[in-house]
Design a protein that fits this description.
Chain lengths: 115, 112
């Protein structure tokens, strides 16, 4: 059963520490999204990639966040330095093809708490 | 820029009641429309989607949605809700570039 895999599932870290979240998209999917979910803001699109190239990262705070796809099987989202306001659930999702109507599939999320 | 607006933040219904959740979007071009559901503590799952053709779309678990282009709306409906439908529901829109934007979500609580 193909699925999007995210690690870590849960992370508690101190303010100022670096946090790296990883995502393995479904094999064959060439589009990867990073979303952040909070009670106040809902689901915010941080960045998305197609064929490993970033298409849009306008939703991501550039000063501390960075997203990359080192290869087709790995997407990373890094926060450095982390702040308490970064506490949220970070979801990765992947989809296939160029068609914007293709379904995307979500991972189970990385629950981040910054204290 | 595209945006999605869900009118109801929290809806409370009794079992067997009918459900309609509102969703309006803002985007000038061709769009694809989705409803996702998130059960407590879980990730988002696709309920249904509209690409083209019949504006009345049927999804899983008895849900359906109607695309009304003139109103920029894509409301979700279910004739009779069950306690197991308690979840958060998200409307989403993607443009031709594949950028998928979500609404704020509607929390549905169904009382047994």
């Amino acid at each position: 059963d193909a699925r999007v895999t995210q690690t870590p599932r849960h992370k508690v870290t101190e303010m100022g520490q670096e946090v790296t979240m990883r995502c393995q998209p479904i094999l064959g999917h060439n589009t990867v999204f990073w979303y952040r979910q909070t009670m106040m803001q809902g689901l915010e699109l941080l960045a998305y990639f197609r064929n490993r190239a970033p298409l849009d990262d306008s939703g991501m705070p550039k000063d501390r966040f960075s997203a990359e796809m080192p290869d087709a099987t790995l997407a990373t989202l890094k926060i450095q330095p982390s702040e308490p306001r970064d506490s949220a659930v970070y979801f990765c999702a992947s989809g296939q093809g160029e068609d914007s109507g293709n379904t995307i599939y979500f991972g189970e999320g990385s629950w981040l708490t910054v204290v | 820029a595209q945006s999605v607006s869900q009118h109801n933040h929290h809806v409370i219904l009794s079992e067997a009641a009918s459900l309609e959740l509102g969703c309006n979007y803002s985007y000038g071009g061709t769009v694809n429309l989705f409803w996702y559901v998130q059960y407590p503590g879980q990730h988002l799952q696709l309920l249904l989607k509209y690409f083209s053709g019949d504006p009345l779309v049927k999804g899983i678990k008895g849900f359906e949605a109607e695309f009304i282009k003139s109103k920029f709306s894509f409301n979700l409906r279910k004739p009779s809700v069950q306690w197991s439908d308690t979840a958060e529901y998200f409307c989403a829109v993607s443009n031709q570039g594949g950028k998928l934007i979500f609404g704020q979500g509607t929390e549905l609580s169904v009382k047994p």
